[in-house]
Amino acid sequence: SGINAEYGKERKAAEACLKTSFFGNWKPDNDSAAHHHEKAGQHFKLGKSYTEALTSYVEAAKYYNACRVLYSVGKCHEAAAACANELGRFEDAHSHLERAGDFYT
Q: Which of 6, 66, 81, 83 could, after both became Cys, cross-link 43 (CB 3.0–4.6 A)?
């Protein structure tokens, strides 16, 4: 479907941002990778594929944390909590909300 195609594009873009080479990128571009994972999460959430959305948001949070964009880490954990809630995984939702709170303060 269209949502899976969009996710595929975003995932490939995120992987491309993380590649390094001797002649090009010396370091992975964590900020851009995080952005693409977050967009993939949004596409999955719109398609009600909450498990995939949850995974994408957690990946985005990891890469935002690597480049110290703390507000965005919290935002991604909050979105992950909403997905976990939709899946009925209330312990995970609670855990993600606690993590989000850690990055908002």
A: 6
The C-alpha atoms of residue 93 and residue 83 are separated, in whole angstroms, by 8
| HEC sequence for 29-72 | CHHHHHHHHHHHHHHHHHCCCHHHHHHHHHHHHHHHHHCCCHHH
Closest Cα to residue 37, out of 64, 66, 5?
64
> How far is residue 14's CA from residue 66's CA, in Å, rounded to a whole number?
14
- Quote the CA–CA distance of 76 and 99 in Å, as a whole number: 10
CA 38 to centroid of chain Cα atoms: 4
Q: Is 90 exceeded by the pLDDT of residue 29?
A: no
Tell me, what's the pLDDT at 4? 60
- Mean pLDDT across 23-29: 72
The pTM (predicted TM-score) of the whole model is: 0.85
